[in-house]
Every structure is written in C-alpha cells, then in structure tokens.
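Supplementary Note 3. Input sequence used for the single-chain structure prediction.
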Amino acid sequence: MKTKEDAIKPVGLTVLYEPDGGTEPAVDIILVHGIGGHPVRSWKCFDEGQSPVSPITATSLRGNRLRKAPPPISGLRRTHSEPVLVKDPSLRSRNLLRKASFKSSSRLKLPDSDQGDAVDKVDVYWPLDFLPASCPTARILTWGYHTLVVDKKPLRLQGDIFAHAHELLLELASMRATLGEKARPVVFVAHSTGGVVVKEVLRLSEAERDGPLKEILLATSAVIFLGSPHRATEQSSLGDAVKSMASTTLPIDPEDPVSQQLCGGNSIELELGRQTFVRLWNYYNFKVKTFQEAILPIYPRAEERAEITMRHIASFFGDPRENAEIIGALHENMCRFGSMEDPGYQSLACAIIGCVRNEEERRHVLTSKERDCLSALLLPRVTTAVETHPPTTYPGTCLWLYDLYDFQIWHHRTAAAKNKILWINGKSGCGKTVLLRSLRTRFERQWGPAGASMIWCTPGDGSSPADLYRSLLAQIFHHDPRLRKALLALYNHPKNDPQRFDDALVVSFFADYYVNKKVETPARRTFIFVELPDDSDPDLVKEIIGRLSTLAQNSEFSICVTTNDYPEIEQEASGAISIPMHLRNTDDILRYVNLHLVAEWEERNETVITIGRKSGGVFLWAEIVVNILNAAIAEGAIQEMIDYTLEEVPGDLHGLYEWMLSTLNDRERAESLTLFQWVMLAAEQMRLNDLFVGVRLTDSTSAFASYHKFGPSMVFKIGKPFSMVDIRQLRNSEITSDTPDQFHRWLRARSIGLLELKADSGQPVGLQRVQEIHHSVRTFFLSGRGFACLSAGNSSIPPRLTTGEFMDISHYTILRACLMYLNMRDFDSLGSPKSPKSPRSPAGLNWDIPSSSAASRQQRQLITSSYPFLQYAVENLLFHMLSPTQFKYFLPQTEVLQMFSSNNYRLWKRWTLLMGTGDAEIILEKYTEMGNATAPLLSPVFGARFRLERVLKKLAKLSTSEGTLSPVGSVVGGKRRRKTKRERGILSPVVLDMGKEVNWGGGGLLSPIELPRMATERRETFLRTKVEVGIGERGYAAKLDRQPEVNGSVLVSPANIQPQREREYGGTLDFGVGVGIAV
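The predicted structure, written as discrete structure tokens, is reproduced below.
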C-alpha cells in the first residue's frame, strides 16, 4: 500500500509504503535528509526524459548550466518551502553545481539561462516510485524536520541537528512500540548531515538502559550514508566538512554563528557521535555502506575543487567493511534518481536489497531437503559423554573477567583483536565451566533483543574433533545460507552411507573447506562457546584452537574456548587472546571462603588466606575443603585441629580426592569400589533405581576371586534364575536401603560427596541420573588412581593388577550382572508364547504383532519402564561384552553361542524381543549408529564385530528351529549329527584369501593352514594372523608374521603355536584366524 505524495508530512515520520495482504514487513527502511532538506524534495528528481549521456568531461561541463534561482522573497521562510533560497552571489563557489550528469539523461539537464524556468518537468520521487518495487517486503518511511530562515539567515533559539535526532528517536520508538514492532530490523538511509542525525540517534539509544528507546539500537540492521561527514582531512576538521555540506543543503552563509550552531559544526557531540558510532559498529556489527559524491575533473576556481574534494574525502570512514562507492553527482543531487536504470540508484538499491535479504534469511525456515541434510549431519546424544548439571555462580564471582582489557577488546571487537578467539585456560576445577555459563547467560540477556545467535558446544557433544565440528556445523547450518548450499551439494553426492556424513568427511569439510572460506551470516553478532574436556589430548587442543582461530579470521564470529592449562600451546597460539583463569580468580576464591567458612576465632582471616593460597586457583578444591572444615567445626573441632587438617590436606585436586577416600574403612572402601565401578564404567548416566539394582547384583570381592578361578569365562557363570524379591534379599553388602531416598543417602556417604543426582525437578528421585560432581572425578578414577586407592588393602584384588586389567574385570562383572538380570524368573513369559504367564511376569509380547509396529514398541517400552535396570541391561549388553580387551579382539564365539542358546534360547529370545528384532544386521546397525557408546567397539579395527555377527546369525537361525548346541556335534532342526572330518580339523589344508576369517568348532587336531604370500605394487607383505585354538580346557595362541615358508606359503601348524596362560585363553572352544595386512 502506497501513500500519496501530497499526504506526506513535512515534519515527522510518514509511512510511504507497506506490504499488502497483511504480510509482516521484513525491515523498516527510514530515509533521513540533511539540514535544510525536505522529506520529499530532498529525494525528488526533475526529469526531462533526455537520452543518456557520457560522464562529464570538460566539454560537457560547459553545456550543463546552472538553474536560475528564483527572486528572493522576504519574510519568515521554512527551508523546505518553495522556492528554495540560494546563496548570495558572493558565495557562488559553494553552489557551483547542483547536478552533474554522471549517470543518465533521466536526470534534469539544466536549461540555458535565456530559457528561464519555462521547462516542462516530470517529477520522480524514487522512494515512492522505485523503491517499493525493489523491496516489496519492506516498509518504507521518511522523516522530515525544518529549519526556520528569515532573509537568508536562520532564526536563533530553534533546535539544532542534535535536538532533531532526539525527536526522531522518540517518535520512531513510540511508533514501533505502539504497533508492537519493537524487534523489527531498521535500515537507515541518510543523506548529507542526516548522517549526523542517525549517529546521534544511535548514541542516544545506547545511553538508555532498556525500553523502547534502547531497542532502536538493538534493532538497527544497517546504516547507508549518502555523502555524510565521517572524519577530518589533512586540511580541515570534521566540523568544516559538516558546515560545507550544510551550506549546500541549507543555502545560507556557513560562517554565520547561528548556522554553525544549528548544524553542530563546532559541537563536542559531533566528535562524540563519530567515536560512538565506530564503537557501536564494531560492537553490534550492523552493516554500514557509504556513498561519496563525485569529484569533477575541471572547476573554475581552486577553492571549489578543494571544498568538493574535502567533502569527498570526509564522506567515508576508511574501513574496508563499508565498501565505499561513488555516485556520479555532486552533493545536493547525489540522492536524486530519475530512473531505475540510473547506476546510482542501482548501487543504492543493491545495498538496500542486500540488507533486506539478510533479514529475510534470518527468518528462513528449513526445507524438507535441508532437514534431511541436517539429520545426516547431526549425531544422537553421545551416550558415553557425561555432563554435570549447570553449576551455580556464587554472588560476586566471575565479575573480574568483564573488567579485563583483553576481554573488552575481544567483546567490543576493537583494533586487531576483533578477529581473534578468546581462550580461557586453567587448571581442572578452577571454575571455567561456571565462568563460561555465566558469560553465556550475560550475553543472552544483553544480546538476545538484538537478535544475536548463541552457539554452545560442550563435552557432551563428543570429545573428538569430528564430534565438535558436527556440533558447530549443525548449529551454524541455520544461520549460514552458503553452508546450507555446500552441505546440500555434499549430501546429494554419492557416498558410502547416503543417510549420514562419516567422521572423515566432516573433518575434511570443516578443516579444509569451511574455515578457509569467507563466512557471512545474517546475524549481526554470533557468539560461539566451546568447552573442551580437561583430559583432552594437547595435540587435539592445538588442532582445534588453530582451526577455530582461522574461522574467526574469516568471519564475524566471536569465539570463546575453555580448555585445561597448556603453557606450551599458549606460546604458539598467535590467533588467540589467552586468559589463564587460575591466575585471575584468587579474589573470587577468597570471597567465597570468607562468606562460607563458619569459623569464629580471631585468626579467622589467616585461615581464609591459607585456604586461598593453598587452592592454587582451583575453586573446586576450596569449595570441598570449606565443606570439610565446616563439618568438622560443627562437630566441635577447634582452631588447632582445623589448622592441622589444612596442613595435612594435599594441595592438588586428585590428591584431595585420594585423601578423602582414605578416610573410609575397609568395608566402606569395598562398597565404594562397587559403586564407582558402575558409575564410571557405565555406558550412560544411570538412573538411581537402575544403579540400586546393579549394585545389589554385584560383589566386587567375589568378582575378582571368580576371575582368578575362571578367567573371562566368569561372565557366563550366571547361576540359576532368581526374582526381584530375591534381589532385595541379597546381602552381598551392607546396603539395607529399600527406598530411593535411603539409597541416595547411602550413595552420598559411600562416595564421600563425589557423586550426586542430576538436578531434574520434573523427575522423582528414583528416576534421576547419577553423576560425578565434576569431570575431574571421572578423570581421577579412569586414570586408575581412584580405583587403586579403593583397592588398597583388599586381599581379593591382586596388588599388581594393571589399570587395563582392572577395567576389564569390572566390565566382566557388569556384563554378568546384566545377564543375571535378563535370566530372572520375572521374565519367563518373554519369548515363550506357548507357556502360561507367571504371576510375577510382565505381560508377554504378542508374537503376532510385527516388532516394528507401534503397538510392539509400546509394549516393549511398557515392560522396560516397569522394571528398573531392564532397559539398561538390554540396550548396553554388547557395550560391556566388547569393552574388555580380550573380548574386543577375540570374542569367545562358542561360549557366547552356548550361553544364549541354553534353556531353549531363553536369553536370546528375551533380549531380541526387548530389542525389537532378532536380525543380526539390524541389531548391529542399531549399535553402530553414530553416537552410540558401542559404535567404536564395533569398528573393523577390532575383530569382534565379524565374530559377533556370525554368532548372532547362527542364533537367529537355530532359534527358529528350536535346536540346541553341543560341544561334540551340531544340531540342526532338533536332530544331532556328528561333525565331519573337515569340521574336526583333520582334512587337507585350508588356503585363506586376504580379508577372510576361519572359525572352526570342535577340539580336534589342527591341520596346516597355508597363508599365501600377498604382494603389493611396490613391496611384498605378509598376512598377520592371530590364532586361537581350544583343546579341552587348555588354550593356545600364536602371532605369526613371517614364519618358515613351505612351497612359497606361510605354514601354520601345531608346532608353531606357543601355549599362553590359561588365564587369558582358557576354555575357548573355537579356532579363529583374524587376517590383516602387516605394512
């Protein structure tokens, strides 16, 4: 909807155009003229329809005469009233040319003086005639103000240009607030000294704390200047440029003191507005575009050339971001265009259209193809990642960061620091996570109304570069149209898995393509927060810091990264602003200790200082020590005891954990060991009820004894079935709690406060997940130091057990607990549709319903949610089966087959029924989904995947015929048959091809196996093999690289096999050869 030209108000805001049909405008385009201008006449061109002419030359200049000025009219005049006043003849040099035909003949060709004003003119008001067609989704407004003049002299006591800026701010904010359009982006188009008005509007808006006036600055998307003054030149000041431009649009004596006061040429606000605008430009990152008036090659007088040159130089900032262009006209007429083909209009329209498109892009809704591409890029939540609950910021802490000069130049994007990353590094537990979350909360509150984008990458997004890059690309995907286009092309390109991007492709795309390209997004500010785990490899941190620095250099992103303290990397990170947090937060630690320590003795301050000094900048250390001291003081400890405790406590965080665990007695340490085995080695954060059942099913003392007796085969010693009632009657520990609250109190006591529940107000206690209080607790245990502390003095645990062996035994113990639980009598109806349901059993699944149907999924969900620990046991069975080193490489296929097939395939049917499928390929596909904790264990690097797949396929085949297995023979269709000689291993040699494996059941003698020599293009290589053979209860293994050759082939025979410890390979009943290339 357009407004008629005669309805435009000379003073105030007028809506020229608004999209029809109730369409929400993408932006508000506001035109602001210079002092002495008019909301219509300043932008209006009088066109005679002449044909285009070439740019001005010395010859064409002579034929381009000045328009005659009307006779002077006395009395009170407004500068926007007809006719426009001209200067005194003595000031001709300041009004030499009104228009130069640089662009096209659509502009007015000035008539000869003999013709006077008797020319038939066609008026073209481009903001109303052209701009709506160029920007149909934008609302277009113009704003006018007047200056009173009498006899070519301005009146005193009228508002200056800065007063007009305040009027514009108030009126614009009022209009937008009344119509509910406070968040709509604003694009200012200012001519001449109108640029001073716009700068002052933004400066006044910034001075407001909040409200509609502040929102004008936050909503500013772009500012386009047409010949506006921005800086001083070598020969003149900024005020001289303002006065020169004002004398062109307001034809009065520029030396008049009232004129200087009105245009602000000598005002301090002029320079203040310039400095503020540059700072706001860097800070809020809105778009800025400048257009300059043309400098004609020949002028009658040197003063004229100098004045126009001064205005030309003063009308750009000198910043590459503004991309300054020249419009082929002099100052007064550079904002008037006679046709849409005018090069000046096309340049201006292109800049405005770009701003509108940016804002439309911010509201972009992903298409179905883009959503599919994003799904291929996104990962499910990594189950092995453990994320502690959002920490709380203590009053008065984290404020030191905002006063640092290094932080301010990064935040305000000043000088060379605007394209650097902010790298906050420090010791584990010093408070980096708290600081980063505090910073994010502050920025969301500050930048949310301005439409800034916040991208957050935490350790929960994975610890590998591929996981981090996936998270970054997936979140930037919504904001960067070029990224969407590039990833769509990659998604449509043929690849191994059309449904997802593999890790190598993601790393290559991010590192080799995306960060090295210029990145532009519609968002005015984009903040990226990256938190790397404290136990990250230094080489990995160096790689990520380098690539994020490159991304910051090629974009407008403000990137903040937190890592552990790496002094060697800090010296090489030239593209980062490094802030060592553990050297800066001492005041925060002292403030916290002073507020929370309950001591009341006279030397209390000395105790506070001692804690602060001994903490070494580690906030968590001080927090734990204060809690310990407060508990001691509450029990009556005196100052001497507190001082002794402080002296005894280790100064490092892991040493503090070890000191705390040493306070437990032998029985408590054994219980604590079981608890931490489950929490630290679980595939995911366990719910409290699940953990209760798992702990009840586990006895660490007997587990190590069982391993010493049976080796890895202890996993399959699950015993007779029992029920949930029996679990509560188990007394393998002193756990007597029967309710979630009681068990929670026991958990807090046995973990000495190192474990807690993940805060979730919407879940009951039993369904909340258990986690460590800080990631350093997990590092402490997984490094082996924590488990070694709890194992000390336990006679059932071998003292020389390595960390890897301890982890393997723990996984065996957890796997056995999962199998014991699935074997319970409560689940007798599962997988037994012909048998009557037990009164203790859940409702059996209907075998007639397809497992992929919604009804079947609902039944499975009902059963797994009704029994604690059942869902964990079903979904993570393979994780604990493949985590031990031996099972990871050499899965005992026969024992796994016998275990699942025993008792009429009871375990197999229960597990596959609750999984929803018995198809081996579908099962492995579920476990190999990206983000699943088991996926890395099923990598081809290990040998277990292929063995496991064969076992699962065999079980699926045999279970349908209800057959059973025997160590002597195999059963097909329920009938036993004896093995052939080839199956017993006494026939002719078997020749293996590269990449194949042989699995031979039975305990017969080995026949030679020939491994043909393999050759590559450049050199010969041999197959590297790993052989397992079971003969009774005795196990053997051999690793062959280059064995004696027989007829050009490598010979493998019993003579080459070296016996290994029965503890490692005892009880295996299969013969497997894993084939690989030894390069």
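The longest strand covers residues 1020-1031. The two ends are 75 Å apart (CA to CA).
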